[in-house]
Amino acid sequence: MRRRRRWPLVGAMSQCAGGVLALALSLGVVACRNSADLADQRSNMIVVAYPAATSEPWRFQSAKHLLFLSMASWDENWELEGRLAKGWESSSDLGERTYHLRTDVRWQDGEPVTAHDVEFTLRLLTHPDVLAQPPGLFKRITVLDDSTLTILFGRNPSFFDVDVVFYPRHLLAELDPASFREWEFWRRPVGNGPYRFVREVKGASAEFEASPGYFGESPAVRRVVLKFLSDDAAVTDLLAGGSDVASYTNPAYAETLARNPDLRSYRWIWVGVARAIGWQHRLPP
Q1: Does pLDDT of 14 surpass 50?
Q2: How far apart are CA 248 and CA 267, in angstroms?
């Protein structure tokens, strides 16, 4: 029997062409595989060891691009391609954008996805009781019709198109933002992406399957399981065959893993976060 290849990933971006696996800003770059390889991949299932700290059910940051659509994503050539948006125009300074949404996208309960969902989500994420996005993200949102809206940004929207995902207004509009992180919705989310939620073992794992109602090409990987593990446990699980991918490994393990012929390593540089210490100069150090 040919041994299955597994990938330890030191990374934070996953995109296989055709939406096979879209854990953008969550996993390392995973190369798409041919059908014979996929047949050998646990009957079209991939098991991902993911950092334990990301298992909070309200966030699903580790799987948000499986469950929900962003405006766009990167293709295999690192060019932007539309997801929820089929096209957009920007002002000369890139501060204002008009988005034209697809009209064939539906939530997994059958309701259509509209520009009102986008507006609702942005106002929710910047609500003072939520602040999942900075409060100055936008200055104005104008819904022109069900599939068109204009956003005047108040901050640099560099990662907006590929990072921010949108939620169903018809299910969430009446809920209290003050309890955002405790909403029952996060325990059984209703998305519009290529996968739908199946089950969660709290603090241990979350499982997703290809959504039959997805507007695009059905994912070749039919089932995704995230196992929430510490760095050390993720490496151990990967080497023991319990996981197919480790989304992040401590750089201390990189050389050892790179020497393993059954593993393929990917390195990445994440430039979206800057950290600094600011000193108060009015007082002596």
Answers
A1: no
A2: 10
From the CB of residue 26, how many other CB atoms can be counted at a distance below 10 Å? Answer: 24
Rounded to whole angstroms, the Cα distance separating 105 from 84 reads: 8
Is the Cα dihedral 53, 55, 61, 66 positive or negative?
positive
Contact present, 104 and 213 (Cβ < 8 Å):
no
Range name among 24-33, 59-68, 222-231 with the lowest pLDDT average: 24-33
* 82-to-71, 241, 242, 243 alpha-carbon distances in Å: 6, 36, 35, 31
Q: pTM score, two decimals?
A: 0.78
**Distance (Å, whole) CA 79 – CA 97:** 18
d(CA 2, CA 230): 29
pLDDT in the model for residue 154: 92
Q: Quote the distance between the C-alpha of residue 74 and its chain's center.
A: 12
pLDDT value at position 258? 84
Mean pLDDT of the chain: 81
Lowest mean pLDDT among 3-17, 50-64, 120-134, 230-244: 3-17
Structure tokens at 82: 């539309």
Confidence of residue 28 (pLDDT cuts 50, 70, 90): very low
